[in-house]
Amino acid sequence: MLRSTERILTSHAGSLPRSPELLEANEARRSGTSSPGAHGRLLQDAVVDVVRRQREAGVDVVNDGEYGHAMASPVDYGAWWHYIFDRISGLTPGEVGLWEQEPRRSAPGRVVLTSFGDRRDRQRFAEAYTDPDSGITTGKQKPFPTITGKLEYVGQEAVAADIRNLKAALDATGAQEGYLAALSPGSCARLQNEHYADEDEVLTACAEALREEYRAITDAGLIVQIDDPSIAENWDQINPEPTVEDYLAFTRKRVEALNYALAGIPAEQVRFHLCWGSWHGPHTTDLEFRHLVDLMLEIDAGAYSFEGANVRHEHEWRVWEDRALPEGKLIVPGIVSHATNVVEHPELVADRIERFARAVGRENVIASTDCGLGGRIHPQIAWAKLETLARGAELATRRLWG
């Protein structure tokens, strides 16, 4: 895993904008109207192009833009999660929409996830969330499947294609390091369950299925990024609000399931991504990072990616002032945000980088984005944000290396 030994390196959190041609090809493949091999050839070329654009923007640690995780439309907040539905058996297509699921209530010592529509932030700002002109949108949401049989990984061909495409793009562009994103057991376990006896069995089954994807990626010499909003985002999906102690006990099971899935994989080939959900809402019910950071550091990863730029969480860089980063670990903080169309000034980018670098050591920081940019902001703005990230990293490098 690359480190910022001579200058501040840059990366991003995963999803990048898809071209209209790729979106059309995704839809044609979904509907069965594409010609044999056409989607695969287009996807391979698109991955080379998106890696080249990352390098031209100044990104050091690149990925495939998550292009192997098909987006349904230009605005799509769920591709990071939905992709796994085609790679795991034991699922039955759902009929109930994401927002129409029945609410569930928690009690002290008994934490359960409620429906997405019953999230506490959505209840508090119900008028804004239901106003089509408010700017809060998450695009098309298809019904989620239900677990009705044994979960087994069947995505071998799909992940092999992701690996081939990214490695070909690395060779074509000369990029040194690449990663592929994969779902966490904790996020996988949020599906409705009608097969397993309890939550613990679901978590174990998800971990055993997903470890195949993790191992395929790392065995190929790439880095796997574990996408796990569930660690932080679940807090808002528990109604009424639990105690922090109950929530951490609930979340620790998800951390243990992830570590179980990662067993035997070198930590230096794993980066973990934590966020509070990437929709453009108020986020007033987000749990403070100080409650989560120690549990996050128990995850067997070499690098930890987290939101550090949006206005709800930027102040939380201070958690690193009184906390020692474990030996050999990296942080990959968000320095530019997906949550605003304003493109950050390079001087601000440099200031944010410096805060983290002075807290944990400049060699232990890779500057990144809060969350994926693809499907959340306009492509032109997304690429401008990556360019300003690189310019700010250059400024920070001059300041830190003097």
From TrEMBL:
Start and end residues of each Cobalamin-independent methionine synthase MetE C-terminal/archaeal domain: 197-379
Cited CDD domains: CIMS_C_terminal_like
Protein name: Methionine synthase
Organism in which the protein naturally occurs: Kocuria flava
Source organism superkingdom: Bacteria
PANTHER family reported for this sequence: METHIONINE SYNTHASE, SYNTHASE, VITAMIN-B12 INDEPENDENT, PUTATIVE (AFU_ORTHOLOGUE AFUA_3G12060)-RELATED
Molecular functions per Gene Ontology: 5-methyltetrahydropteroyltriglutamate-homocysteine S-methyltransferase activity; zinc ion binding
Listed InterPro entries: Met_Synth_C/arc, UROD/MetE-like_sf
Residue ranges, annotated region (Disordered): 1-41
A biological process from GO: methionine biosynthetic process
